[in-house]
Design brief:
Number of domains: 2
CATH topology of the largest domain: TIM Barrel
Number of strands: 7
Shape: globular
CATH architecture of the largest domain: Alpha-Beta Barrel
Number of helices: 10
Bound molecules: adenosine monophosphate, manganese (II) ion
Largest sheet: 7 strands, mixed
CATH class of the largest domain: Alpha Beta
């Protein structure tokens, strides 16, 4: 099976490396078909495509859109998009707006919890001012000594219900799928194992995603545990969805797995890239 990795991040969102550096790491790990999927941003796609071309690696233009569904944050990856599409770009601008204000509120809440200067501290880690993310806060909080890993800092400060968590309204599921489809792309439900949904709510998410034209689900991803690979392989079969694979790489030492550490998709699933 082709070695495809279709989910990762650069400094254009909350990754640690520039698009060309991420391309080089993916290529060095043997990736043959690669997508950059920054959060709510396609500004890195041109540089990523050029780097992949220089390396002789297959390239897929991508994005990861933040969605609010049933009061939960859900991520939808768009693949094979035309990153210049006006509807998509305007939708992403709208989705990004509000990140700075949310960041100021996160800073205020952390200050109230005894950690001053987090907004300014997080901004030091931001390359793209339109994309202040909780990951940037996590890096600052580690620097400030309140935690030693990104996972720990989310658990204690940044996850839903914790002192630095500010609820936010992202795009709707219908908007995200509409923008991806307008841009000629394929919509992929990202890392479903990460959402705190009971089986009934999870089934409702899959049903709605499919009814809106969603075609694929991430099965093997750095954001799933190995147990969840099997769980979501079973759901891909049950719903007749194509399967996707990607490390969700953010940077060396920061992600659970890198491009080399991710197993292949179960052989009976139809990969999202089967007809590309
Ligand atoms: P944001 O879009 O600003 O709310 O940030 C979401 C990003 O935070 C995700 O894309 C991940 O990179 C990171 N993230 C969310 N939850 C966790 C977690 N539990 N552990 C590590 N990183 C996380
Ligand atoms: Mn991220
Ligand atoms: Mn995600
Ligand atoms: Mn991601």
């Amino acid at each position: 099976m082709l070695k495809a990795d279709l989910h990762c991040h650069s400094t254009i969102s909350d990754g640690l490396l520039a698009p060309a550096q991420v391309a080089a790491l993916a290529h060095a790990a043997g990736v043959e078909l690669w997508a950059l999927t920054d959060h709510d941003e396609v500004d890195g796609v041109a540089a990523a495509r050029a780097a992949a071309r220089r390396l002789g690696m297959g390239f897929v233009a991508g994005v990861e859109i933040s969605v609010t569904w049933a009061n939960h944050t859900v991520h939808i990856v768009g693949l094979q998009i035309d990153e210049t599409d006006t509807a998509l770009c305007n939708g992403l601008i709208k989705t990004r707006s509000g990140r700075d204000q949310r960041g100021r509120e996160i800073g205020a809440q952390l200050a109230a919890a005894g950690i001053p200067g987090a907004y300014e501290g997080a901004l030091k880690y931001v390359a793209n001012p339109a994309l202040l993310s909780r990951t940037h806060f996590a890096r600052f909080l580690i620097e400030a000594g309140v935690a030693t890993s990104v996972a720990e800092v989310f658990k204690r400060y940044l996850a839903e219900g914790k002192p630095g968590y500010v609820p936010h309204r992202w795009a709707t599921l219908a908007e995200a799928l509409g923008w991806i489809r307008a841009a000629g792309g394929v919509a992929v439900l990202a890392h479903p194992g990460r959402y705190p949904l009971d089986p009934v709510a999870e089934a409702a998410l899959f049903d709605e995603f499919i009814s809106l034209g969603g075609r694929a689900v991430e099965v093997v991803t750095g954001s799933h545990t190995p147990d969840q690979y099997a769980t979501y392989a079973a759901l891909a079969r049950r719903y007749g969805l194509l399967a996707s694979r990607g490390a969700d790489f953010h940077g060396p030492g920061e992600s659970r797995v890198d491009f080399a550490g991710l197993p292949p998709l179960p052989a009976d699933l139809v990969p999202v890239w089967h007809d590309w």
